[in-house]
């Protein structure tokens, strides 16, 4: 049986199709010309303009000139890891024979491999570091296909012409051409940027307070700035998340640690021993080596709005925003992910 939400989205997709969404030459509607026609058989709600705009925009229009960076399943970990590090991306599509899409490999996959193979090692002296480096044969010989998590599954592939409304419900949405080859990837970061550019289409919904957002129940998991970076990675893997707030002795959020920070070990893993350093020291090395690395923690209060969260994610190019108790103590009480925000944009 179709749910009410599904029926409403189906109506909007059908209306968008009638208005020309299926024509490849149609322009992307701007926020000034976002459709305002009332869907047949439904009561107009706040945010309907945004949903209709997403339904009218084709997936390939979000990144028409995007070059898809990919790896093949037979590539070694250093080769694939280098691609992610050099291009500052969190995941890449994995291709098999005839370059057909098999799934994704991401930084969490690499973190899982490192924890499994090296997590029980002790680093107390230079001799320990040298011994660790001698064991890098496992890193150098492992293939991408060895570390792809089956739990992630094979992402849904859509064809050109599909609407962003459909893609918005997929973590990373591969777009295939007529030959079945991946020609675009629609990411949640792109969708957040799209929502921010057309924020007026959310209507009054954009003024929804953070503490009024519909979020799944959960508690904030944080790590102390003085714990080993390897321990922080273990927590991420255990919780199935890609980032955590870093707190000081008073419990105030002072930094963010994510799987993206694995770039600090260098693509050939010759700096793998750095993972045995504290999170604070490890992050300091990254900032010293990368002038573009963010140095300020991005946070919001419960009294801030959905619009503020979207703006901060778009402006700072980040995947999560921390909600803190107040400006004085800055204790994290919630983590808002891009997925959380997009789900609230899509809900009616």
From TrEMBL:
Keyword Transmembrane helix among record annotations: no
Alphabetized InterPro entries for the sequence: AMPK_gamma/SDS23_families, CBS_dom, CBS_dom_sf
SMART domains: CBS
Positions of the CBS domain: 64-121, 215-272, 293-348
CDD domains on file: CBS_pair_SF (cd02205)
Keywords from the named record: CBS domain, Repeat
Pfam families: CBS
Basic and acidic residues composition-biased segments: 11-20
Protein name per Swiss-Prot or TrEMBL: CBS domain containing protein
Residues spanning the signal sequence: none
Gene3D superfamilies given in the database record: CBS-domain (3.10.580.10)
Region (Disordered): 1-45
Biased composition (Basic residues): 1-10
Repeat found in the keyword field: yes
Lineage top rank: taxon: Eukaryota
């Amino acid at each position: 049986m179709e749910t009410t939400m599904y029926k409403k989205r189906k109506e909007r997709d059908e209306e968008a199709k009638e208005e020309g969404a299926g024509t490849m030459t149609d322009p992307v509607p701007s926020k000034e010309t976002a459709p305002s026609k009332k869907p047949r058989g439904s009561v107009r709600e706040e945010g309907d303009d945004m949903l209709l705009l997403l339904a009218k925009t084709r997936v390939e229009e979000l990144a028409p000139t995007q070059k898809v960076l990919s790896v093949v399943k037979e590539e070694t970990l250093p080769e694939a890891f280098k691609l992610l590090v050099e291009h500052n991306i969190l995941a890449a599509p994995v291709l098999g024979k005839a370059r057909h899409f098999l799934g994704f490999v991401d930084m969490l996959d690499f973190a899982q491999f490192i924890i499994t193979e090296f997590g029980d090692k002790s680093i107390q002296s230079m001799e320990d570091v040298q011994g660790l480096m001698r064991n890098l044969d496992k890193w150098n010989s492992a293939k991408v296909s060895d570390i792809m998590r089956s739990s992630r599954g094979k992402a849904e592939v859509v064809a050109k012409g599909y609407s962003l409304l459909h893609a918005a419900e997929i973590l990373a949405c591969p777009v295939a051409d007529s030959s079945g080859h991946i020609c675009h990837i629609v990411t949640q970061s792109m969708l957040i940027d799209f929502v921010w550019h057309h924020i007026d289409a959310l209507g009054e919904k954009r003024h929804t307070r953070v503490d009024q957002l519909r979020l799944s129940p959960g508690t904030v998991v944080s790590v102390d700035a003085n714990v080993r970076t390897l321990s922080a990675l273990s927590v991420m893997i255990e919780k199935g998340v890609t980032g955590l707030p870093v707190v000081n002795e008073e419990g105030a959020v002072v930094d963010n640690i994510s799987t993206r920070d694995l770039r600090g070990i260098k693509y050939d893993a010759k700096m793998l021993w750095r993972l045995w350093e504290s999170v604070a020291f490890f992050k300091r090395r990254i900032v010293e080596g990368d002038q573009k690395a963010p140095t300020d923690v991005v946070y919001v209060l419960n009294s801030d709005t959905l619009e503020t969260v979207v703006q901060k994610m778009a402006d700072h190019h980040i995947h999560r925003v921390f909600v803190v108790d107040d400006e004085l103590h800055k204790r994290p009480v919630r983590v808002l992910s891009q997925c959380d925000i997009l789900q609230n944009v899509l809900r009616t």
